């Protein structure tokens, strides 16, 4: 009775192994060993041998066969997948990649051209900027010089007017005879009084002239008298020539109008008479 029960269990196990084998992709040719195992189990039930040992052997063989079949099926699927990727997708991917590479190269060339253009424009902009900065620096220096000159030489027109007044005072002083400036004991009281008035007037003109020269000097204007100096066309204006055996030719022998400098720049040249060259 126990032997029959075990035989039925073995048959049931063979059936489950058959189903599992079919579910894992086993082919019909792989069922031969199951059929042999079924025949062996039937024979052993009839002969009455040890069923426990046979069952254990049968289970191990079934498991090894199923594992080997699964491994073989997995390898076939992987091989088929590799062939499919290498035989179909490979060329397609190559054909797709080639246009992409060409397109990228064209874009790269265009970008290189754009970069070169931008560099050229940047260089041109730098040149213009440097030129503008140089112009601005020149303008700043020129403006500074003009402002300085306006401060230093702004009084030139006014100073020339004052110089003309000083010339008039000088001529007035020189026009008074020297003998009228001397005190005399003879003469009437009226003559003495007139001489005194004339001297006072003369001294007043000289003092006024001196004060004007002082004011001009405080503002950068200086008077110069080139008598006896070599003639310099930058400082002197020759009005005439004269003979003077006691002086060298080209020397300033007479000054008819004194010169003036404004901050060491000629504001008015001196009018002079120059010694004539000696004739041989």
Describe this structure in words.
The chain is mainly alpha-helical and 280 residues long. The chain has 4 domains: 2-79; 110-153; 154-219; 221-280, Nucleotide Exchange Factor Grpe, Chain A, domain 2, CATH 2.30.22. It is 68% helix and 11% strand. It is built from 5 helices and 6 strands; from the N terminus they run αααααββββββ. The chain has helices at 2-23, 32-47, 51-153, 156-175, 189-218; strands at 221-224, 236-242, 252-257, 259-262, 265-268, 270-275. The strands form 2 sheets. A 3-stranded antiparallel sheet has the order 1-4-5. The protein has a 3-stranded mixed sheet with strand order 2-6-3, with no helix packed on it. A hairpin with a 2-residue loop joins strand 4 (259-262) and strand 5. Belongs to the GrpE family.
Spell out the blueprint of helices and strands.
Layout: H1 2-23, H2 32-47, H3 51-153, H4 156-175, H5 189-218, E1 221-224, E2 236-242, E3 252-257, E4 259-262, E5 265-268, E6 270-275
Helix pairs in contact: 1-2, 1-3, 2-3, 4-5
């Amino acid at each position: 009775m126990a032997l029959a029960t075990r035989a039925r269990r073995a048959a049931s196990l063979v059936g489950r192994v058959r189903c599992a084998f079919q579910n894992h992709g086993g082919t019909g040719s792989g069922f031969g060993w199951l059929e042999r195992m079924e025949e062996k189990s039937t024979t052993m039930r009839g002969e009455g041998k040890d069923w426990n040992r046979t069952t254990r052997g049968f289970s191990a063989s079934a498991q090894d066969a199923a594992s080997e079949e699964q491994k073989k099926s997995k390898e076939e699927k992987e091989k088929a997948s590799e062939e499919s990727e290498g035989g179909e997708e490979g060329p397609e991917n190559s054909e797709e990649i080639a246009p992409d590479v060409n397109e990228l190269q064209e874009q790269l060339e265009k970008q290189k051209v754009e970069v070169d253009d931008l560099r050229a424009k940047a260089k041109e902009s730098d040149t213009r900027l440097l030129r503008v900065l140089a112009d601005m620096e020149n303008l700043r220096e020129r403006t500074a010089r003009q402002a300085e000159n306006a401060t230093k030489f702004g009084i030139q027109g006014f100073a020339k007017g004052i110089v003309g007044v000083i010339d008039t005072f000088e001529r007035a002083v020189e026009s008074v005879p020297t003998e009228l400036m001397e005190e005399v004991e003879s003469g009437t009281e009226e003559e003495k009084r007139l001489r005194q008035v004339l001297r006072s007037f003369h001294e007043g003109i000289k003092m006024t002239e001196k004060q004007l020269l002082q004011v001009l000097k405080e503002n950068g204007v200086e008077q110069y008298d080139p008598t006896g100096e070599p003639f310099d066309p930058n400082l002197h204006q020759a009005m005439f020539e004269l003979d003077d055996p006691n002086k060298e030719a080209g020397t300033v022998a007479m000054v008819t109008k004194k010169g003036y400098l404004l901050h060491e720049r000629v504001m008015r040249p001196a009018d002079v008479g120059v010694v004539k060259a000696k004739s041989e």
